[in-house]
Amino acid sequence: MCGIVGILGKHQVAPLMVEALKRLEYRGYDSAGIATLDDGTLDRRRATGKLINLSDLLVTEPLAGLSGIGHTRWATHGKPTQANAHPHQAGRVAVVHNGIIENFSTLRAELEAGGATFQTETDTEVVVHLCDSHLRAGKTPLEAARLTLARLHGAFALVFLFAGQDDLLIAARRGSPLAIGYGEGEAFVGSDALALAPLTNRIAYLEEGDHAVVTRNVITVYDETDAEVERKIETTDLDHLLVDKGRYKHFMAKEIHEQPAVLADALARYTDPSTGRIDMETGLDVSRFDRVVLVACGTAHYACHVAKYWFEDLLRLPVEIEVASEFRYREPPLNERTLGIFVSQSGETADTLAALRYVRAQGGMIVSMVNVDSSTIARESDLALPILAGPEIGVASTKAFACQLLTLAAFAISTASRRGTITGDREAELVRALRTLPELVTRALDLEPTIADLSREVAKATDVLFLGRGTMYPIALEGALKLKEISYIHAEGYASGELKHGPIALVDEFVPVVVLAPSGNLHDKSMSNMEEVMARDGKVLLVTDSDGAKAATGEPWAALELPDCAPIVAPILYAIPMQLLSYHCALQKGTDVDQPRNLAKSVTVE
Ligand code: G6P
């Protein structure tokens, strides 16, 4: 949610900051801006809309300077106008901010009473006025920043730039991530290592409550008590972080097509074909817990929803799934026998992190599955399992979903095996099934031309229903979410059995109904539901396998035949046509696939 960057460079920083902001655009893209110091004087350029507008503005109105801060915004307080775009400035200080200042209205009233004039509708502007008031009272930049930080409530990351201070940035982290980059006679600050990847691979992450005084040659980090602390400098793998679209038109398309490869990587890490076992040394006392709660947001939540079926089946334990934003405020009774599993691509989602801390406070055990190993969620877990999807840039999650599912499946199998609820033979059978995934997913991707054709019709609809039973139910939910996210077509996912309890009222000849029904014990029931839709002229798109197609009754509008697969891999496989369908519908509608309106990839505000 909002990307921030700061550079103390040797060269002109404006172009470097625009490049860094491009790499942060996944965090927000409704407006952007930069501020630099030229001969000690602060100046800013800001533009609404995508970063390209800021780049264009910088061509006609360039900004000189070797020091600067930049921001790409996802609006929380105040519309995405130029005035509300960051950096904000008052007097001698400019600031970029990610997060929310919860007590901004109290502070604003206080500052206005003291004579401050506000130019924006943002919560952030209180930060610059507060800081400026301390500077005017004779405080040093560090003192002024500390006095300001002491007044702020909420979760945020901030970077301050001061007029006349060409070799100084002050960065502060409370709740939102911030990375410090070390260069040779240069220094950097960014929301993540990805932003800084072309600039440096030596990164330290601020911890909760830290602030840093950043100069070109010396970086000093202080904790929340203002005591000087060391934060480990890590060397990041630049090749891994430098990502582009390759031959694809969109990151989403590239990421969909990367799934066979990233699943193969994750399988190589988590399965051992020579023993037929899961290779996941967790060090957990698996006899300790008697209940599992799986908590996440968005697509990651649907991965948890699938995992509920696996965990109940394999572990024979009570399993609950929760959306993090509800779970954290409900204060459910938990104890030290609870295993909390937190799934998050970014590892920074504010609600998921808060839910994790709640489970920790109740004495529960914390396992997380994240794509960003250095993330806060990973660092606050007893065990953090990387999902190994590689950087995911498209806002709509695709390959991370597949890898979340694979990691959840591997964890469920390994834990069940160690708890003795499945035999070694069953484990080997499941591992064999998982290892078929790269091949199966490759074959599913071959359906793309057919799906592109079907999308021409589906894209005309104003409503689409997705139905599934068993593990296909969460895939129906995920299919509907993907379609909503990137094509803006209204879509609902339903458990097929619920059809007649409401959604069937929506069905007519204009409503495509995607029925996810692999062959197996639930196929007959799904066919009955499909018949109910067809009897009301609904336009059924059946997604099944060869046996499922043979046993299908009636005449669906269209059918997609996926390769036969074991039940444990079906959710991962059946998600592929859902991703392709939403992608091609979005192409039909001409929407912004990688950066759909109003969405952000990493949601670091509640
Ligand atoms: C946002 C993204 C989704 C993602 C969700 C959870 O809504 O747009 O794609 O599933 O956040 O994010 P996380 O990083 O915790 O998986």
Task: Indicate the percent of residues in helices.
Answer: 25-40%
Q: Which shape, going by the Cα principal axes?
A: globular
Tell me about the biggest sheet? 8 strands, antiparallel
Tally of helical segments = 21
Strand content: 15-25%
Find the structural class using helix and strand composition. Answer: alpha/beta
Contiguous uncertain segments of 5+ residues: none
Spatial strand sequence of the major β-sheet: 3-2-4-1-10-9-11-15
- How far apart lie the N and C ends? 10 Å
Number of strands: 27
> What value does the average pLDDT take?
94
Q: Which small molecules are bound? A: 6-O-phosphono-alpha-D-glucopyranose
Task: Please give the radius of gyration in angstroms.
Answer: 25 Å
Mind explaining what this structure looks like?
With about 600 residues, the chain is an alpha/beta fold. Helix content is about 35%, strand content about 25%. The strands form 5 sheets. An 8-stranded antiparallel beta sheet has the order 3-2-4-1-10-9-11-15. The chain has a 7-stranded antiparallel beta sheet with strand order 5-6-7-8-12-13-14. Helix 9 runs parallel beside helix 14. The model has no long low-confidence stretch (mean pLDDT about 95). 6-O-phosphono-alpha-D-glucopyranose binds near residues 299, 300, 599, 601 and 603.
Task: Explain the layout of strands and helices.
Blueprint: E1 3-8, H1 13-22, E2 31-38, E3 41-48, H2 51-60, E4 67-73, E5 88-90, E6 93-101, H3 104-113, H4 125-136, H5 141-151, E7 154-162, E8 169-174, E9 179-182, E10 187-190, H6 193-196, E11 202-205, E12 211-214, E13 219-222, E14 228-229, E15 234-235, H7 238-241, H8 251-257, H9 259-270, E16 271-272, E17 277-278, E18 291-296, H10 298-315, E19 319-323, H11 324-330, E20 338-344, H12 350-361, E21 365-370, H13 376-379, E22 383-386, H14 399-419, H15 424-434, H16 437-445, H17 448-458, E23 463-468, H18 472-487, E24 490-495, E25 512-516, H19 523-534, E26 539-544, H20 546-550, E27 558-561, H21 570-589
Parallel strand pairs: 18-19, 18-20, 20-21, 21-22, 23-24, 23-25, 25-26, 26-27
Antiparallel strand pairs: 1-4, 1-10, 2-3, 2-4, 5-6, 6-7, 7-8, 8-12, 9-10, 9-11, 11-15, 12-13, 13-14, 16-17
